[in-house]
Amino acid sequence: MKLTYKLEKEKLAYFLYVEGDLIGDEVGPKLVEFVSDAVNDEIKFFVVDLSQIRYISSSGIGLLITMLTKMRNAGGEVYLTSPSEHVKKLLIITKLNNIFTVFDTVEEAKKELI
Fold first, then answer.
1. Chain center to CA of 96
2. How far is 74 from 95, CA to CA, in rounded Å?
3. pLDDT at 1 over 90
4. Do the Cβ atoms of 32 and 10 come closer than 8 Å?
């Protein structure tokens, strides 16, 4: 399933809503570009909503780590929200749940960050 996305800017945060399979394909560089834009806009929080992600490949994991590294190098942070049970298990297996802060919902992230 092809990945689609929508980006919203809200005060001090960017919210990226992705849907489909996160496999780091041709959409990957665009998502990293969004993080670069956030850094250039001096945005400190980048929230990725995973509620509509069916599958994440190793390239998709690499993409998330690249986004996180780019934000952290600029003094910011990437947060993940609403992972499905399948994605939650993947985050635990890969120990990424120890690297990323994961919120249960986008609303929870907004309350905490904005």
1. 12
2. 23
3. no
4. no
Packing angle, helices 58-73 and 28-40, rounded to 10:
10
Residue 96 has pLDDT above 90, yes or no: yes
Which three-class secondary structure state does DSSP give residue 24? coil
What's the CA gap between 67 and 53, in Å, rounded? Answer: 17
The fraction of the chain above a pLDDT of 90, given in percent, is 86
User: What domains does the chain contain, in order, with CATH numbers?
Assistant: 4-113 (3.30.750.24)
Q: What is the pLDDT of residue 104?
A: 96
- Identify which of 35, 56, 33, 53 has the alpha carbon closest to the alpha carbon of residue 44: 35
Contacts (Cβ under 8 Å, ≥6 apart) of 95: none
At a CB cut-off of 8 Å and minimum separation 6, what does 24 contact? 57, 59, 60, 62, 63
Lowest-confidence pick of 20-29, 56-65, 94-103: 20-29
Half-sphere exposure of 47 (CA within 13 A, CB side): 26
